[in-house]
Amino acid sequence: MKIHRPDGLFELFHKTEASSGRVILTRKIGRGLRKSQIPAPLVKLLLGKVYGLKDVTFSSVRFTGQPLLLNLEDIPCITVSLPKEGNLDHYLAMSRMDREGIPLPSACVDDTRNLHFLWATTSPFTLNEFYVASLIKGAIIEALREMRPNISGYNISNQIPLTGTINSATGQYVGAPSIRTPYAKEYLQDKLLNLTSAQKFKTWEESAGRLLELRALFDERWWKISTQPESHQDWMIFFGASLVPFCTPNQLFLELSALAESLEGKPWSKIKSKHQTLINAISETGTKDYIYIDGNYFSLQRGEWNEWIKGRLEITSREIEELNLRQIGIGDRTSPYIHGINKTWLAIGSNDDFVPEHAFFLKAAS
């Protein structure tokens, strides 16, 4: 198997010099994980430092803070991971992809336990297009169901092992048995969205628009939300209901925990007892098309969500006009945010657990 130095793989997708997003590197040390956030244009310059280190991974998308959908910047590649079971190798996996009408991936990373397939794009999916990337990921996963794709693949981002590092579970180097070329994102949409039902596309588009408008409203009000504790449960429910289609239960818990930190202006360790029951309830039942809270069922398909959000959060006419909240403010089926976003929002959650790059790359910690 070809090892490849990690900069060769990064040149394929984390190469957008204009991106203001950050790549999240993680490294397992002992029983814990260290995380470092690196500006996308600088990552390639630092990759020589990871060669031969153990258990180093990178985010397949770029963020403005913690690796959360709520902090998404852009999406330069779509990733799906398959366990290496039986005689499955990347040749057999790609043969099955071809049979299912899936374009062959731009790269495959083999960490000796899993195969990670990446579909790089010549230009990234932008924040407002995240639901399209999610639908494409879901279509690939469903088409490859017989090969048991990793459940974490349903999240917008996967942590992918870096080539040239070592998987400590097997003691072997991570390699890249194939590196091809990127695709135009429009090509992936044309080839793969036809595997998704029109109803699912409509439902996810509506959830995405609602989520983006909530995010804009939250960013506008961030300075006063911590002084309005009576609204915190409503924010958690509305964000949770909008995030459900795009997150596994574990990822949804992380998203809402970070949201709680920003609502309270305090670290999770100090507010955990206050919010954990609600976050658990949303995370555990959201995959069933409803959320169950305090003995009540809230359907995720109900048509009153926009009206409920507008009333409970007391959205004003000024906010509707200035923020262009046409979905949650007026009740339009789709949001103008689906067609473009002109600003970067403040990061959700605490960034205290990121370590500087000089500490992350210490050889002695390996």
Could you explain how this protein is built, in words?
With 366 residues, the chain is of the alpha+beta class. The protein has 2 domains: 6-195 and 351-365, DNA primase, PRIM domain (Alpha-Beta Complex); 198-334, no CATH class. The protein contains 13 helices and 13 strands. The chain has helices at 6-13, 40-46, 90-99, 130-143, 185-192, 198-225, 232-243, 249-264, 268-285, 305-312, 317-323, 326-330, 357-360; strands at 22-29, 32-39, 56-59, 62-63, 72-83, 107-110, 114-126, 159-161, 166-167, 172-173, 175-179, 290-293, 296-299. The protein has a 5-stranded antiparallel sheet with strand order 4-5-7-6-11, sandwiched between helices. Helix 4 (130-143) crosses helix 6 and helix 7 (232-243) packs across helix 9 (268-285). The longest helix is centred in the middle third of the chain and has 28 residues, at 198-225. The two termini are 24 Å apart.
**Using DSSP, what is the number of strands?**
13
Give the helix proportion (percent range).
Answer: 25-40%
Reported for the largest beta sheet, the result is: 5 strands, antiparallel
Please identify, by name, the CATH architecture of the largest domain: Alpha-Beta Complex
* Physical arrangement of strands within the biggest beta sheet: 4-5-7-6-11
Number of domains: 2
Ends distance: 24 Å
- Number of alpha- plus pi-helical segments: 13
Overall pLDDT score: 89
The coarse overall form would be globular
SSE string: HEEHEEEHEEHEEEEHHHHHEEHHHH
Q: Under the CATH scheme, which class of the largest domain?
A: Alpha Beta
